Amino acid sequence: MKKYQDIFKTKINESFVMFKQQETIRKGDLYQLVHQIKGTGASIGLDILSEVAETQLLYMTDIEGERLSKHIWMSIIETIEAALQQQAELPPLPRELIRQEPVLLISSNNDWLMRARERIKRKGFK
């Protein structure tokens, strides 16, 4: 899992470097990136990062206009960068401390159920 977390953190930082070269950016472009950070972060165990990204998404929905000025988007990026740093300082939770409870997956799509089951098993769950 750490490998995927490191790859994802690198991709986030690369995206931020590209944004920082501009004076204004499209709100939709940053929203899409922050939404990806929220979802992917949650799915690969970067919970703090995911929660902070969610708060930034809520903040962005209240911002008017199609383009964001540098002081607005920089505050969003800096908040997420701080969460990345905070997440990096936390040691991973030992697997034996993670409580595993049964999960019931219900779907009319059997192919999806089988793929989901395999993904869950690959992550070490029974």
TrEMBL record:
Domain of life: Bacteria
InterPro entries in UniProt: HPT_dom_sf
GO process terms (BP): phosphorelay signal transduction system
Protein name: Hpt domain-containing protein
Organism whose genome encodes this protein: Terribacillus halophilus
